[in-house]
Design goal:
The chain is an alpha+beta fold and 252 residues long. It is 50% helix and 21% strand. The longest helix has 19 residues.
Length: 252
């Protein structure tokens, strides 16, 4: 990731060895990409700069500067065959994609569960491919693949299996697995894992296990990580849940 506010500065001609995906939070930018004059502003716009293609960058005319967030993605993130299309169509308006990118930056900044970032990145990969690739017969969501992924997640609730590893095991792409899972169960793989961990945490808390120990046991980074998700699922903290629920059970 790279977050920056640029004022009165122009990037010289250069090239990245990665795919660069850019969103603006303020201002507007102009850039020349392989001799094409391009521009992007805020709102729902997303810019994609392919690897190995020379470009520059500067604030757009009448704009004092810009505030941007960049993602630098491995050159294999998208097929090399899409580089030409990305040069011809470097910017597009896509609200869901823009929001997904903004949320991914937040997830990465917060150092949240890698499975969360991986699932969001899969959605981003699919939408970028849809924009850049010629129309094709994309694989429809597959209930059998969704069930297979759920079984795999159930086996690895504490030490979550990565979506990349699941894709290799199930011989499917990550975007296809995420799309199939969402279609079948109405929830993302990451949200499913969090729910399973919360259920496991409830039982351990009622058994008198301290919240800090419960957090590590069920797969959260620490007690704060458990508390954040537990409050979202139950509207209370793990300690209060154990105290109040435990007291009620004792009185019964």
């Amino acid at each position: 990731m790279f977050h920056a506010q640029i004022v009165d500065y122009a990037y010289p001609l250069h090239a990245h060895d990665t795919w660069t995906v850019l969103i603006l939070d303020a201002g507007a930018i102009r850039y020349d990409l392989d001799n094409r004059h391009c521009a992007v502003s805020g709102g729902d716009y997303v810019a994609v700069l392919p690897p190995g293609v020379v470009h520059d960058g500067r604030p757009a005319a009448n704009a004092p500067g810009f505030r941007k967030r960049n993602l630098y993605l491995d050159p294999t993130f998208l097929p090399a065959s899409l580089i030409g299309s990305a040069v011809d169509h470097t910017t597009f308006r896509d609200g869901p994609l823009r929001r997904a990118l903004a949320r991914l930056h937040q997830v990465l900044d917060a150092d949240e569960d890698p499975l969360n970032a991986e699932a969001r990145l899969a959605m981003i990969e699919q939408r970028l491919t849809d924009h850049l690739a010629a129309p094709s017969t994309s694989t429809r969501p597959e209930p059998q693949a969704a069930r297979a992924l759920r079984a795999l997640l159930d086996e690895h609730t504490v030490q979550a299996v990565s979506l990349a590893a699941a894709a290799r095991l199930l011989d499917r792409s990550v975007p296809h697995l995420v799309r199939s899972f969402g279609q079948a169960f109405g929830i993302s793989p990451h949200a499913y894992i969090i729910g399973r961990r919360i259920e496991a945490a409830r039982k351990l808390l009622l058994a008198g296990i301290p919240p800090a120990e419960v957090a590590i046991t069920v797969g959260f980074c620490d007690q704060a990580h458990l508390t954040r998700h537990f409050r979202r699922h139950t509207s209370t903290t793990p300690a209060r849940y154990a105290s109040v629920t435990g007291s009620r059970a004792a009185s019964i």
